[in-house]
Amino acid sequence: MPNQPPQLPAWTQPLIRWGPLGAAGFPLIGSLINNDLTQVLWSLPVTAITAAWATYGKAFVDRVQERAGEQAKQDADATVDGLGKIVSAVRWRFSDYEQQYLNCQAYQCEDHYDEDAPRDEGILNVQLAEVFVPLQVTTVRSHGDDLLSREQRQEAELRAQLAEQEENPPQIWDFLQQIGTVSAYRRMVIQALGGYGKTTLLKHLVYVYAHQPQEVWHQYPDLPKLVPVLLYLRKWRETIAAEDAPDLPTLIQSHHLPDLPGGKEVELPSVWVKTLLKNGGILVMLDGFDEVTKELRPAVSRWINQQMRDYPKAMFVLTTRPAGYGDYTGEKFDTGIFIRPFNDEQQRDFVERWYWLQERYDRGNRDTPKGRQDAQRKADELLKQIQQSDDLEKMTDNPLNLNMIAQLHRYYGDKLPQYRAELYSRMCELQLDKRPRAKRKELVIPYPANQRVLQGMALAMQQQGNTLQLAFEDVVALAQRHVSTLSKDDLEEIGTISSSLVKIFVQQVIDVSELMVQREADDYQFAHRTFQEYLAAVEIRRTKQEQLLVDKAEDENWRDTTLLYAAQRNPSQLIQSLTAKGTDEALFLAHGCWQAYPKAELVKPEITEPLQQLRYQKLAEYLEQQDWKAADKETYRMILASVGKTSGLAVRDLQTMPCDDLLRMDRLWLNASNNHFGFSAQKAVWEECGSPMDYNRDWERFGDRVGWRKDGDWLTYDDVIFDTSAPYAHHPVLGGGVCVVWGLVVVSVSSLASRLAQCSR
Questions:
Q1: pLDDT for 91-117, tens place per residue?
Q2: What is the pTM of this model?
Q3: What's residue 73's pLDDT?
Q4: What's the CA angle centered on 599, arms 598 and 603, to 5 degrees?
Q5: Which residues of 568-596 are buried (b: 16+ CB within 10 A; e: fewer)?
Q6: Cα–Cα distance measured from residue 289 to residue 109, given in angstroms and rounded to the nearest whole number
C-alpha cells in the first residue's frame, strides 16, 4: 500500500478548524439574543477573521488528512451560510431601529398646517403629502467656491439662471443626489423670507425619506440613502448654547427622539446615531437660525460649526431668513440655496390640490365627480381673482400667503383683500371674531379689544430681542399687562377682567382662534412670525411710536414690521426720517416703505427725490469715474434693493421693477457712456435680433452683437471688457447675477426690455 499521512485523532479535526470560530461566534450570537448591538459590532470583525481561519483550517487539515476533504467543504459551505444569516440578522436589527426612528420623525411632519397660519372652521387639516407643491430653488455664488472646480461652478450657476426656463427646474433633490461627488453640497444653507416654505421643505424631505423613498430614488437614482433628523433651533437653542451642551449624537438620541411622537418607546443602541453620523448616513436639518435670539446666535453658531467638524461625512442643512444668516459666526456653509417664488404653475397646482382636498374631506373623504367639479370651479374663481390683481399676484408668490388667501376665499367667497396688510387684517378678524362666533364660543374679551391685547403682546415680544416663544405663565403675564391698558369703553362692555379670566382668554386664543399656538409642552408663540410682525405694526400705529421703527432701521428683524406699518398709512414722514438717517440700511428701508404703500403715487416728489438721490449717489460716482466694473456690480445691488431683495432675483421681479428705478439706472448709464451702454441700448439690439424669448440662434446673435460671446463661446465675468472699447450695449452685465455667463439664456434682457417699454409710455 502506498504510504499514507499519519492520522490525527478524530476529535482534533473540529477543534483545529472550528475552535476559534466557536470562541468568537458564540458571544456574537449571545449578543444578538440579548439585543446588545454594541457588542455585536465588536464581535462581528473577530467572528469574520475566525471564519477565515476555518477556511484556512480546511486546507491545513486536508494536508494532514486528505480523506476529510469533502466533509470540510460541506462544513465550510454551512459556515458561510450561517455567517450570512448572522450578518443579515445584524442588518435587519439596525434596519428595524432605523424604521422605528423614521416613523417617529415622520409623525412630527405629517400635517400641512403645523407651521402655517390658522384655519377657519370647516377648513380641514390636510396632510402635507397631499398638498405639497415641489419648491424650485436657485443657487448663489457661495463662500465655498474654492471647493468646486471651475466646471462645477459653471454648471451650478447655469442651472440656477436657467431655472425659470427649464421644464424641470432644479429642486433640493438635484443637490442631494450629488453630495457624493460635490463636497460643497454637504453643507447647504437654505435662505428665504418668511412664508416661502423653508420649514415645509424640510418636513417634505423627512416624509419622503420615511414613506416614499422608492419613488424619489426612481427619479433620482444617485440619491444617497440618508436618515433625516429635523431639529427646530427655536426649541433646542438654549440647550445647545449652554456651556455643557450635548454633542449632536446625544442631542438626537437623548433629547430629540424622546420628544418625537412615539419616541419615548424607541430605545436606540448608543452606537447607532454616532455610527451613522461618522459614516455620512444622516441628513442633519437645522431649521430656523433666524429664530435664535441674537444673544444666543454666536454660541449656537459655534455648536453647529463644531458638529460639522466632528462629523465631516454627514450632511448639514441650515434654514434661515437672509438677515439671520448675517449673524451666523461659524464657518460659512459651502453652498447657498434660495427658494424661488411660486410661479403661475405652482400657484395653480397648490390651489387646485387645496380645494380638491377640502371638497373631498367635506364628503367623508369620498372622491366624487361632483366634488371634483366644485373644487375646480372654486379654484378657477380664486385663480382668476389673483390674475386680475397685480397686488394679489405679488402676495401669492409664497405658500403662506397663498394658503391664507385660499382660506379667506373659501370663507368669504368673491371679495378678497388686495394688499398684504389688508390680508393679515382680514385673517385676524376671521380668527378673533367670525371663527369663535361660528363655533358658538364667545371669547372672554370680544373683538376688536382682543386684537388690541394681542397687538400689545406682539410688540412686546418683538422688542424683547426677537423673542418668538414664551412659557404659558409668561404669555398670561404679558396678556394681563395689556388687558390693563384697554379703554374704559372696552371695559364697560366687558366688565372687570380678573387674572383667572385672562388665563382663560389666553387659552381661548390658543384653542379657538389659533392665532397663538402651543408648539411644545411649555412653548407658546404666534402661529407664524408674520402675524407677530403685523400685530406689532398695528400697535405701533395705534400708539404713535413711529420713531421706534426709525431707531430699528439697521435691525433686519424689524424690516417686515416696518413695511407692514408703512402699508397702513401714508409713510411720507417715516420716509423722510429714514432718509435723514442716511445709512444704507435706512435708505433701503425707506424705499421699501414707499413701495409698500398701496397708494405710492400719493407720496410727493419732494419726499422721494432726496431719497433717490442718496440711493443712487454711489452708482452715479462710479459711472462718473468710469469705473465700469464697480458700477456694474452696484447696478445689480440696486436692482435687488428696488425689488426688496438682498439676493435671488426672479424674472417676475424684473418684469415688475419700479419704473422710476429702471429709468433712473438707464439714464445714468446712457449719460456716463455717451449713449454707448445702458438698458435702452441693449433693448435696441435685442429688438434688432428678433426680440428672442427662448434660447436659440437669435440669442447667440444678440450675444455676438453686444460682445458677450467670443469664438462661439459665452464669456465668463472675468472676460467682460470694462472700458469704452467694449462693443455697443456691452454693459451692464449685472455682475453675473442675472445676465450673461457661460451660455445662459439672457432672460434679464427680455424682461427688462419689456418693462422699459412699459415704463417709457
A1: 334 457 788 888 888 777 776 554 433
A2: 0.62
A3: 53
A4: 125
A5: beebbebbbbbbebeeeebbbbbbbbbbb
A6: 19
